[in-house]
Amino acid sequence: MIFEGVVTVVLLLLLNLSIIVILNDVLHSNPGIAGGVYMIKRSLVIGGRYIWSYQNLFIAILILIDCGVLYWRLIRRYHLYQMNHIIAELHYISEGHLEHRITFKLDYRLQRVVDSVNSLVDSATQSMNDERQAERSKDELITNVSHDIRTPLTSIIGYLGLIEDHQYQSEEDLVKYSHIAYLKATQMKSLVEDLFEYLKMRGAETDLAINQVNFSQMLEQLAASYELEASRKHLTISSTSDPDDIMMDADAEKLGRVFNNLISNALKYGEQATFISLNAKLVGDQVIVRVANDGREIPTAALNQLFERFYRVEESRSKETGGTGLGLAIAQSIVERHGGYIFAESDEKLTSFVIHLPVHQGVKLQPTELG
């Protein structure tokens, strides 16, 4: 830019000198023009002095024009330099340095270009990361499903093989082997059904059958349907609602699946618990539901992983109770499809699954709205 400025100044000085020489020649060779200039000059006299001379005035005008031309040239060169810098940065990013961003500040017009480029790179990077994550999730899903199906399938084949080879000593052994194979087959069926439900809820093409639902009555019916099973485990189950009748837009069947999963989990894994409670409260345009029990505390490290596919707090205990590890992932998917969110809390006194649901569909709640 310094070289550009020096060259421009030299060229302007030469141009100015040429113009002054030409004008002097014109005035000397044309007495009429020179006389007119002299008469104008005499009319602008104050205190016996001329307040201007045409040479000085003309030189001042040339200097102003020169400054304008110099400024335009330097700004133009500076913008060209910035544009070349942006192009160099783009080449650097295009070589695979997707973590790089253009950080320097420019004028408004070029800054919009820089911001657009950075946004485009962010979007492309996010899309690539999402694609990689989707690929990893698909691989993990296949691996987990294969593992969870292989275990009961191996048992089924093993016990049916014993029956096929007549390796049993009594009819009692035959019934025992058949029963074990049946239980393992049922476990496989449950896994496949949960997996199908999970994939269906994660798919964008699945529509909810939205209707007006009396949410309070739904919770009461769910609590009543589990009373017998709860009493066998020496638990009490209850539901409360504030107000008594909460009406909301929802897919009753899908929401029923959510609470069935949560209650079943509380019955299976709520060791040393004495009660299960379902509490719903209308707060503004959302319903906050707590499914709680006073069983053993869930470790803090596990709380954020509860809703991951196939995650089990205790692998051995879950296998004994027949859990597929998909129940909470399905519950989360259904809640999110309704525009809400779900999370877990646990301490020494209470373990709660908290669900926020919008009263009207079309509204998506954010975790920041937690009261």
TrEMBL record:
This is histidine kinase. InterPro entries: HATPase_C_sf, HATPase_dom, His_kinase_dom, HisK_dim/P_dom, HisK_dim/P_sf, HssS/ArlS-like, Sig_transdc_His_kin-like_C. Pfam families: HATPase_c (PF02518), HisKA (PF00512). The chain crosses the membrane at residues 6-26, 57-75. It is a multi-pass membrane protein. GO terms for cellular component: plasma membrane. CDD domains: HATPase, HisKA. Its main location: membrane. It comes from Furfurilactobacillus siliginis. It catalyses: ATP + protein L-histidine = ADP + protein N-phospho-L-histidine. It is found in: Cell membrane. One of its GO terms (molecular function) is ATP binding. Residues 144-361 form the Histidine kinase domain. Its EC number is 2.7.13.3. Keywords: ATP-binding, Cell membrane, Kinase, Membrane, Nucleotide-binding, Phosphoprotein, Transferase, Transmembrane, Transmembrane helix, Two-component regulatory system. It comes from the Bacteria.
